[in-house]
Amino acid sequence: MSNTTTSRSEPFNIGGITLRSALVHLVMYGAAFLFVVPYIYMISTSFMTQQDAVAQGMNWIPDPVTLGSYIQLFTGSQIIQWSINTLIISSLTTLLVLLVDSMIAFALTRLEWPGQRYLLALIIASFMVPGFVNIIPLYLVVSDLGLLNSYLAVILPFAAGPLGVFLLAQFFRDIPYELQEAAQLDGFSNFRIYTRMILPLSKSILTALALFIFVWSWNQFLWPLIVLQSEAAYTLPIGVVVLQDNFTYQPALTMASAVVASGPLFILFLLLQEQLMTAVEMQGVT
Amino acid sequence: MSVTDRFGGVVGKLSSDSRSRREFVEGVLFSLPYLALFGVFLLYPLVMGGYMSLFEWNALAPAESVFLGLENYTTLLNDSQFWNALGNTFYFALLTVPSIVVVGLGLALGVNRDIRGQGFLRAIFFSPYILTVSVAALVWIDMYSTQYGVINYYLGAVMSNPPQWLQSRLFAMPAIAMTTVWWLVGFSFVILLSARQSVPEYLYEAAKLDGAGTWRQFRDVTVPQMRGAIFFVIVINLIWAFQVYGQPYIMTSGGPNQTTETLVMYLYQAAFNQRNFGYAAAIGYVLTGILVAVSIANYYFLGGDNE
């Protein structure tokens, strides 16, 4: 409201300002509408009957609304098992990444020992080689370790990525060293400095990193597809694709599975969108 | 660059011999868990991939692998399916990366204006990025459907012969690219928006005083000020584009007539369908080479900017 009134109070610019501003609003909200069309299609189709979903013409509002596809999905597929698998894998990956990455970032920035500089350079250089480019030898390693079809097959290679180390090292080194010195004079061990000082001071970045890792590992596709070969071991992203392959064209069912696969992350996004976008921004700042 | 250089003096004053020995032990202990993962699951496969690419690799009995030297690589040079996949991957990058940068920048500049519901719009444009590739692809398969799809339903109203999208040799890759732009642009959008918001406002005031219009402000203030973020967005999207796999795998299986088969799809096929691990490792190394070249090019472009 206030925007309109201010522009109205500038009589000489009425045409210019309001027309331009109206145009900007039109374009931006038009774009936003196009962005949500796929969501509307996905959600509305998932509540349709099978016949309505493939009917000629376009009906955006399901009539009648039915939970048939969801019931069929939960009773006729292993989607509950896949959801559990995905949840466990994402949660454990997130915890592992936070733990090991914060430990090494602490050692690389807050302790003084020879070789740390080269180590940091090596880890950063590995950014250039995205983990799964060398999926063949990685597959053989995981297979030799007897990890195929297990959660660890997905978790461990993911946790080897350098992103978290890099982000945390950047953050840790900006924490004032005077604090650490004072703690050392008080007889704090380095372990206590890590747990009592550095970690609590880094809550914001740890939260952002955790969210990003969680979403990212939830959504992984190629690697789980390779190492999770039995249907009971699938994650949601793999499961929903296999499900769609197995059925003849049943859009209502496929869309219901898509809603289930993305629903938890959407809820997470609605609750914590600021932190999640902060995690993205941090990568741009580097 | 180095933390030790910057702060070594301060910490150094406190250290004695025994303390620095203890710090060394602690440093190693704190680093060990990550380094174990890094070594086993990143560094070793990287080196091993190069080694395997020199062999006709026998997965069941590695010791019996046949040494080929560079033969896998020379075979690649004459492998038309490899060149097709490489070409398709470049084509995909060409279609997606500029679009993502332009759309992302456009949305960022739009949201940055004096507009209602800024936070709402920001969330909407970012949101597809949190979907898994499977969901993005499955929804768009239905929307592209020539029989039941939304897109051709509305296009059919304005044109008599709408494209066959995923079934068409001409339109399959652009269709996959369009899905990809929708799916991934949110990441770049958020970064560009944040970069735009940190451009000092007085630069625009000064430009206006000099009589610069919207276009001149964009060209002489916005773009140079956002240069770092734009480069970052280009590079990260190039890196993603060269590794594209999920979208074509789910949406077209590489068809029609292998017009959407990408490098990673071909690598996957060589490894897990033909069981030709050495050859697949060679493809992986070519891909790694491309990605390293992209990163190095970026480093040189940006190098002058950081100093």
UniProtKB/TrEMBL annotation, chain A:
It comes from the Archaea. The chain crosses the membrane at residues 21-41, 79-106, 118-142, 148-172, 193-218, 252-272. One of its GO terms (cellular component) is plasma membrane. Keywords: Cell membrane, Membrane, Transmembrane, Transmembrane helix, Transport. It is found in: Cell membrane. Its main location: membrane. It is a multi-pass membrane protein. CDD domains: TM_PBP2. SUPFAM superfamilies: MetI-like. InterPro entries: MetI-like, MetI-like_sf. Belongs to the binding-protein-dependent transport system permease family. This is ABC transporter integral membrane protein. It comes from Candidatus Halobonum tyrrellensis G22.
UniProtKB/TrEMBL annotation, chain B:
PROSITE patterns: ABC_TM1. The chain crosses the membrane at residues 28-47, 90-111, 123-141, 171-193, 228-246, 277-302. Pfam families: BPD_transp_1. It is found in: Cell membrane. GO terms for biological process: transmembrane transport. Residues 86-298 form the ABC transmembrane type-1 domain. InterPro entries: ABC_transporter_permease (IPR051393), MetI-like (IPR000515), MetI-like_sf (IPR035906). It is a multi-pass membrane protein. SUPFAM superfamilies: MetI-like. One of its GO terms (cellular component) is plasma membrane. Its main location: membrane. Coiled coil: none annotated. Keywords: Cell membrane, Membrane, Transmembrane, Transmembrane helix, Transport. PANTHER family: ABC TRANSPORTER PERMEASE PROTEIN, DIACETYLCHITOBIOSE UPTAKE SYSTEM PERMEASE PROTEIN NGCF. Belongs to the binding-protein-dependent transport system permease family. This is Binding-protein-dependent transport systems inner membrane component. It comes from Candidatus Halobonum tyrrellensis G22.
